Amino acid sequence: ILCHISGQDKDWDTNIQFLPASDNKKLEKKKGPGIVGAVIGVVIFAAVIALMTGLLVWHFHFRNDVRLKRMYSGSMRITNQGFIDAYENSNSSEFKALARQVTSQLKSIYSKSPQLAKYYVGSTVQAFSEGSVISYYLSEFDVPQGQEASVDSAMSSMDKLVDKEQRRVARPSNSLVLEDVRSSALDTRLLSTPFSRYMQFSMHTKPNEIGQIQSPGFPNSAYPPNTFIQWQLRADPKHIIKLDFDTMNLEEDCSNDFIKIYDSLVAIESSVMDEMCGYHSPSQPLTFLSSGNVMLVTMASDKENDYPGFRAKVSQVPPVTCGGNLMGEKGTFTSPNFPSYYPPRNLCQWSIQVPNGNAVKLTFKTFLLSEPGQKDGEDCLKDYVQVNGKKFCGEKPEGTVTETSQTNTMEVVFFSDASYVDRGFNASYEAINAKDPCPKQFQCRNQRCIKTELQCDGWNDCGDMSDELDCKCKPQDISCKNGLCKPMFWKCDGVDDCGDQTDELNCGCKSGLVTCKNNECVSEKHLCDGIDNCGDGSDELNCGRSTGVLCSDLTYKCKNNKCIDTVNPECDGTPDCEDGSDEENCDCGRSLFKTSRIVGGENTQDGEFPWQVSLHVKGAGHVCGASIISPQWLVTAAHCVQDDPRTRYSQPGTWEAYLGLHIQGNTAKNVVKRNLKQVIAHPNYNAYTYDNDIALMELDSPVTYSDYIRPICLPSPQHDFPAGSTVWITGWGATREGGFAAKVLQKAEVRIINYSVCNDLMKAQLTSRMLCAGVLTGGVDACQGDSGGPLSSPSGSRMFLAGVVSWGDGCARRNKPGIYTTVTKFRGWVKEKTGV
Ligand SMILES: *[C@@H]1O[C@H](CO)[C@@H](O)[C@H](O)[C@H]1NC(C)=O
Ligand SMILES: *[C@@H]1O[C@H](CO)[C@@H](O)[C@H](O)[C@H]1NC(C)=O
Ligand SMILES: *[C@@H]1O[C@H](CO)[C@@H](O)[C@H](O)[C@H]1NC(C)=O
Ligand SMILES: [Ca+2]
């Protein structure tokens, strides 16, 4: 353990002092990340290995009394000093001399505050940068339990303390003139995690050269556990840093492993630009810009995990320019760096002018300005866009922020504050006739124009609901008491769609009674009383009994043939069966992808649905979808493999399967093409009723799973997919007749519809082997599903194959339910034919 101090109040001049020379072995030197070969251009890459900063060692400093260590990071501007190159090197005597001055002045500042003086331990200067000189430091306090809040609040008003100090008349003439003081408590995760390794790197980029940083071991091995790393990045004065991630693949849980990017050279929380973890698809740009010529990237990991890490290019670019005069009938403009992240501390101003006699209509296509600390619906206190004197912030659905001017000019302001950045906006303006702003269309209250037929159809097309107010509902709709109309298929699904429960009235049983799976009503008192009151055993489920449960159609059967009453116990991470068999064969249903927001459209990210397969008829292209259930087996729809006079769809030789495909026609390196060995349509498939619409396909050879090719979990026969739950359909939009509408794999969120409600809507054409789902979001008449493709149902961190796209409108058009083959009904058949 490194003990750097022994309680006396002492000023340290540089961070070096935190490292007793005798203890070097403890933190053995680690080779830096393999920058070998991969560096593009020549970079000045000073790899200052390990254990440099005080931050690293703070952690090892502990005491046995009840005082708690509190760490603050801060920066301040020194205006009466000029920056010299030697300040970049913390070993230089110039650095040490100025650092000594800074720490002694910090001590003097803290000594003026009664809350701080008592508990102050010491400070270290971490770095300097230009402007005139900005100093970055860490300060440590030993705070008795219960006093943390008072120290935090004293620290947060440190700028005032400094101002007061600066105004003193009898100030020593050689003292530093300070301004722009920021400080905040260090991210507590850094102090609560027992890191066993610390590394620090610094890089000063050169003009026209691209450097690279990456996690240790990338791309050949996983990043190391229990490690804290920071990269201090610098650019020349009057330049900013551009950090461009090409890979970002960490553990999903940010409380364990994370990357944080700061607009600073120390980890000041008030300058944090973003925190990231999980997987970010390379198909979406991930670029950050600093406001000045410095940036800090930190990465922390906890216990051993097997994730590749990250790699990013670093370069210097001229400061962002934005705003200006926009003329003409129409045009578009975006926030800086769109569709990637805008820089912090940015202000842009646009003046739009359209021809005389018109008004300006401005529509935001993408609008992503959300950040922690900014609540929805409150005044925009952080980043915002201002139009017509109104401020907008947060995340808004596509096209729902629209403003119209009174005259032929409009001013638009974009502001980003010091912390947290987002992807920003893409806006378009056009000249409109002020008297008729929505020719032949309906004008929403938010001034958006929508097709007239979208008025009163139960869908919020305006974004502010104004198209769904004061409606007279059509007979096929639910008339909510509050005046809204909703599609009938949302009736009795347990979700309050009206907002006033109208759609959930007269469903199931009266209050005090519970609804059984077979729709019988029994008293609540009969739940879990050991007696089957429902008649199907559904009142005796999920009662926490793991043994001695009578087997029924609704109970899960373990491998040892004993039944348990837990609903959906498979692969939920908890062994429910005595023999643990409910957690066997669980390498399924997971994608590396951490669902991130979609910038425009309903495209999936590459690898988001790795079980999705594209079935091509040789020479004719994509025809149907399918799902991977094992290295050699796919599930699809039986109607995809029925012969017609022209094509022998039932023959394996007709088909080729594309696995890991994201974009049709783009057979990237992740894509695997396979021929088929066998096609097995369900023997009871009925081409008139679409009953038993399921088929299996065997690949000619097994595939190796990858980030882009993985199986989906097959549900047990008892798996419950209740009405009202949200599931996903995916596909390239192929209709039964073939051909595809989209190049990029599409996704749509759908909701499972109450079976009896759907059967009524579909004029009693459903069999018990079908289930219904309706589209929840997405555009009008979007066709996202493919025949044969998966209906993926999230459960915990996995997806289960709830259904196979069958008929009705597999395309999931709004106001038309899609019909899916219920996979649970075929679990035994799948097992019999494939062994899976
Ligand atoms: C600072 O000095 C130490 C010991 O003399 C050396 O190991 C280290 O590489 C130096 N760092 C820099 C940035 O020059
Ligand atoms: C912004 O949206 C317009 C269409 O509204 C599109 O043409 C343009 O390419 C988009 N700009 C960016 C940078 O994505
Ligand atoms: C489905 O709707 C019917 C009424 O149409 C209702 O009786 C039944 O309880 C609903 N089922 C579920 C699971 O909510
Ligand atoms: Ca911000």
UniProtKB/TrEMBL annotation:
Stored InterPro entries: CUB_dom, LDL_receptor-like_sf, LDrepeatLR_classA_rpt, Peptidase_S1_PA, Peptidase_S1_PA_chymotrypsin, Peptidase_S1A_matripase, SEA_dom, SEA_dom_sf
Reactions this protein catalyses: Cleaves various synthetic substrates with Arg or Lys at the P1 position and prefers small side-chain amino acids, such as Ala and Gly, at the P2 position
The entry's keywords: Disulfide bond, Hydrolase, Membrane, Protease, Serine protease, Signal-anchor, Transmembrane, Transmembrane helix
Keyword Transmembrane: yes
Residue intervals of the CUB domain: 201-317, 322-432
Subcellular location, record wording: Membrane
Family named by the database record: Belongs to the peptidase S1 family.
General function of this protein: Exhibits trypsin-like activity as defined by cleavage of synthetic substrates with Arg or Lys as the P1 site.
Record protein name field: Suppressor of tumorigenicity 14 protein homolog
Organism this protein belongs to: Gasterosteus aculeatus aculeatus
